[in-house]
């Protein structure tokens, strides 16, 4: 009969157990020195080696010639345990045998000496599934078992165990295995089994197994079916997930506001065998990785990713504020709950959420406002860096030259307007137009009040602005303090909001075309922007 890989490659000694060296070293010492406890508690997530270590312990404690705590594997006792040909090793699954009657059977059988081995070992898996009455029946026996009896309890949910049980056992916590540990074991198995396994595919399997070796080996066997080489594409298809580049393309489309690409990516996932819920989890994980890279210079030590993947994340997060990433994470998390409920069409939910995320100012409320302010702060910080870097050293006074070069022309003031200056991104105001808030619309403050009531974020960005109306041109020009504020405000939604608010305050403003200009002296600009940022 065919034996699955995870059973075939189950560790036979403590040295073969991956990623649990601290635990296995202690167990080996206790067995080698004869200082074993009467009850052990193995805790940890699935596939981390709890049951395997319990089986190895049962074999090693009865081994006639153990090697520094490891079973020799060749003596009569080791062969009997390996062949399951002894009644002295009792394994019980508490998930299906959780009644008090099973524990009473154990309690009755411990009084008998081992039939053929030195110790009688009871291995109770998923022990947290026992009923309260069963735990009560086990307590006395667990605390003071006969001399030749050892209990090994294994659980994935230690928090469900009564403290009276935990206190009677020597506890060992099994950690999730690292991707490197899993990858190394998979490469060893694939080399012995003749499986062609790509390095990137091995790491992807390790990541998908979420720290469980059994899941990793099972997925490897699934991918290797039909003698096919195991690569990233094969693993993605077998696991029902999207390739990483699909997640990256989707996020890029969101950031760039490319809604056509969003529908294309979700459509491709929907029409294939991939699971939208799993894709959504990958997208959340990707945004989380971006957040780590954004705030942690040593992200490579925290994220189990390659240098190329870290570099790719650093490039993707450039120019995106942490607050916006947090806003994205919140929107994705909210939609995940609806996706898992299955109340709505998952495709439609995914598309609508991504489209909302792709808006210039997604979401509403405090998180959305924080994201917008965070972007402004990041851009202003970058601007200050550029100004500091590009600042030229002061030159000594020189005699005026008849033919001044372009760089020697002093900055013009608001009263001067060079005729052929194409370098300025913002045109200088005409002399006949207002140049100060005092010369602007007197009721502009009322317009700002209407705007703030409808959209607090837009009102915050417009704080300190003023406006004037040109009847001949039919325009309403809003003067703000900085080019970056124009970048944040110059969108259809905000322009429409300003137009409606102005018409509400004074019908004469209805139908005017709204535009923005930078119109404050340099010093005043800096002071008022600092006020906005607090």
Describe the protein in words.
51% of the residues lie in helices and 9% in strands. It is elongated. Helix 5 runs parallel beside helix 6 (132-143), helix 10 crosses helix 11 and helix 20 (444-454) packs across helix 23. A 5-stranded parallel beta sheet has the order 2-3-4-1-5, covered by helices on one side. Strand 6 and strand 7 form a beta hairpin. The protein is built from 24 helices and 8 strands. It folds into 4 domains: 5-174, Rossmann fold; 179-239, Helicase, Ruva Protein, domain 3 (Orthogonal Bundle); 244-357, Up-down Bundle (Zinc Finger, Delta Prime, domain 3); 435-533, DnaA, N-terminal domain (GMP Synthetase, Chain A, domain 3).
Short description:
The chain is of the alpha/beta class and 534 residues long. The protein has helices at residues 5-8, 21-33, 50-62, 76-82, 100-109, 132-143, 163-166, 179-193, 199-208, 213-223, 232-239, 244-256, 259-271, 276-295, 299-302, 307-317, 322-341, 346-357, 366-390, 444-454, 456-461, 483-489, 492-505, 522-533, and strands spanning 39-44, 89-93, 120-125, 149-155, 170-174, 466-470, 475-480, 513-518.
């Amino acid at each position: 009969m065919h034996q699955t890989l995870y059973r075939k490659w189950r560790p036979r000694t403590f040295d073969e157990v991956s990623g649990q060296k601290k635990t296995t070293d202690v167990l080996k010492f206790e067995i080698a020195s004869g200082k074993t406890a009467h009850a052990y508690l193995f805790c940890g997530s699935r596939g981390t080696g709890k049951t395997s270590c319990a089986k190895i312990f049962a074999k090693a404690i009865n081994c006639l010639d153990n090697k520094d705590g490891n079973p020799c594997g060749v003596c009569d006792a080791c062969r009997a345990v390996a062949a399951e040909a002894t009644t002295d090793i009792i394994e019980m699954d508490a998930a299906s045998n959780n009644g008090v009657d099973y524990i009473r059977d154990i309690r009755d059988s411990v009084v008998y000496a081992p039939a053929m081995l030195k110790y009688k070992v009871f291995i109770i898996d998923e022990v947290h599934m026992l009923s309260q009455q069963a735990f009560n029946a086990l307590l006395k026996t667990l605390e003071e078992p006969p001399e030749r009896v050892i209990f090994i309890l294994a659980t994935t949910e230690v928090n469900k165990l009564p403290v009276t049980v935990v206190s009677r056992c020597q506890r060992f916590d099994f950690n999730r295995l690292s991707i490197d540990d899993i990858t190394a074991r998979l490469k060893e198995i694939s080399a012995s089994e003749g499986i062609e396994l790509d390095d990137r595919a091995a790491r992807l399997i390790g990541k998908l197994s979420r720290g469980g070796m059994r899941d990793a080996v099972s997925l490897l066997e699934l991918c290797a079916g039909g003698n096919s080489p195991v690569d990233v594409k094969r693993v993605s298809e077998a696991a029902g997930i999207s390739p990483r580049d699909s997640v990256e393309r989707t996020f890029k489309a969101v950031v760039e506001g490319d809604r056509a690409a969003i529908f294309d990516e979700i459509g491709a996932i929907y029409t294939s065998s991939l699971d939208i819920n799993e894709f959504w989890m990958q997208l959340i994980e990707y945004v989380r990785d971006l957040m780590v890279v954004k705030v942690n210079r040593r992200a490579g030590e925290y994220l189990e990713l390659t240098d190329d993947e870290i570099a790719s994340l650093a490039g993707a997060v450039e120019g995106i504020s942490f607050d916006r990433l947090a806003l994205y994470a919140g929107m994705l998390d909210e939609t995940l709950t609806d996706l898992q409920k299955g109340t709505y069409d998952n495709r439609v939910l995914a598309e609508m959420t991504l489209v909302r995320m792709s808006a210039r100012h997604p979401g509403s409320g405090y998180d959305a406002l924080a994201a917008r302010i965070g972007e402004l702060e990041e851009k202003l910080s970058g601007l200050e860096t550029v100004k500091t870097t590009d600042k030229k050293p002061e030159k000594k006074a020189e005699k005026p030259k008849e033919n001044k070069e372009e760089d020697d022309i002093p900055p013009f003031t608001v009263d001067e307007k060079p005729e052929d200056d194409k370098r300025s991104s913002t045109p200088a105001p005409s002399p006949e137009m207002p140049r100060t808030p005092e010369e602007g619309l007197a009721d502009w403050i009322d317009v700002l009040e209407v705007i703030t009531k409808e959209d607090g974020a837009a009102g915050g960005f417009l704080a300190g602005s003023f406006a004037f109306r040109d009847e001949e041109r039919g325009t309403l020009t809003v003067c703000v303090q900085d080019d970056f504020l124009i970048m944040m405000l110059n969108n259809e939604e905000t322009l429409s909001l300003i137009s409606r608010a102005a018409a509400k305050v004074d019908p004469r403003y209805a139908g005017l075309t709204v535009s923005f200009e930078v119109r404050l002296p340099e010093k005043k600009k800096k002071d008022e922007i600092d006020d906005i940022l607090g």
